[in-house]
Write a structure and sequence with these properties.
single chain, Jelly Rolls, eight-stranded mixed β-sheet, globular, binds 2-oxoglutaric acid
Length: about 290
């Protein structure tokens, strides 16, 4: 199967070939969607946020393959905040940091796009609105944003998952807009997608019940499909269908792999109230 890779259209409008590739594989790689200068501006803003962050105020490590965060108040309350999550590999067995704080973060989430003007600007625009419309989103709103660091040598793998497990609606409408802020390739942990498996249904649901996140297995049939590494030069946008299984490997290189991921939900579908992601009723959802 041909890799769904294209040069980004300047106005965000997708060609028929792009739409076909997305429908066939469940993802779409659009190189040069954002300029290097735009990537540098959000990265510089992130560096300022990190400089102002005091790691002593946080103990929440985020490991995608662990349940540690699923009952953690700092994580569960981060849907409408800018919060910092630590990388497990940044600490030794006694819990002492092995690296400087700017190298110790796994991610920042989950409302950068609504609370910070620089991230707001990067997350929105007529081009993104056009792209969203062209993949069939009718009334998209931005539910969450994450700056994912994948730190050199210690950035952990993210196991195979479908985003609709965590950001569920009926029917599924969650869509990932993942931007490479730095070059991402197979040595520093680029995304890997399972082409065509977005047509195999949702395998797992995550629910927020009694103050914690629990998972329910919906279907034990294994995915089938062709795994495709999705290397992404800086500025690339990778679109991910909410049912598209994807993962990323650990970063075995000396280079970081900063990425900025937005997840949209289509208000034309019914948001599931037992999703973990919550926001204050006074903080309105906005689209692109
Ligand atoms: O950036 C990564 O390594 C994983 C991101 C991801 O799985 C997502 O944004 O849904």
């Amino acid at each position: 199967m041909r890799e769904p890779r294209f040069t980004a259209p300047p106005d965000g409008r997708l060609t028929a070939d792009m739409r076909t590739a997305y429908a066939r594989t469940g993802f779409l790689v659009l190189e040069g969607y954002r300029s290097a200068a735009a990537c540098d501006a959000v990265s510089a803003r992130a560096a300022d946020l990190i400089a102002a962050f005091d790691p002593a105020t946080v103990s929440t490590v985020f490991a995608a393959d662990s349940n540690a965060h699923t009952r953690d108040a700092y994580f569960l309350g981060s849907g409408d905040k800018i919060r910092f999550f630590l990388e497990p590999g940044a600490f030794d067995a006694a819990g002492r940091p092995r690296v400087a704080k700017e190298r110790a973060l796994n991610k920042i989430g989950h409302a950068l796009h609504d609370l910070d003007p620089v991230f707001d600007g990067f997350s929105r625009g007529a081009d993104l609105a056009a792209t969203a419309a062209d993949i069939g989103l009718i009334d998209p709103v931005l539910m969450q944003s994450m700056l994912i660091f994948k730190q050199p040598r210690i950035g952990a793998e993210v196991g195979l998952h479908q985003d609709a497990t965590f950001l569920h609606s009926d029917p599924v409408s969650c869509t990932g807009f993942w931007f490479a802020l730095e070059d991402a390739d197979e040595s520093n942990g680029c995304l890997i997608g399972l082409a065509g498996a977005h047509r195999q249904g949702l395998k797992e649901r995550s629910h927020f019940v009694d103050g914690r996140i629990v998972k329910t297995r919906l279907d034990d049939t294994p995915f089938t499909g062709v795994e495709m590494a999705l290397p992404a030069p800086k500025g690339t946008l990778v679109l991910l269908h909410g049912l598209a299984p994807h993962r990323s490997t650990a970063n075995s290189s000396d280079r970081s792999r900063w990425a900025y991921a937005l997840h949209a939900h289509d208000r034309a579908t019914r948001w599931s109230d037992d999703n973990w992601l919550k926001r204050d009723a006074g903080m309105a959802l906005r689209g692109f």
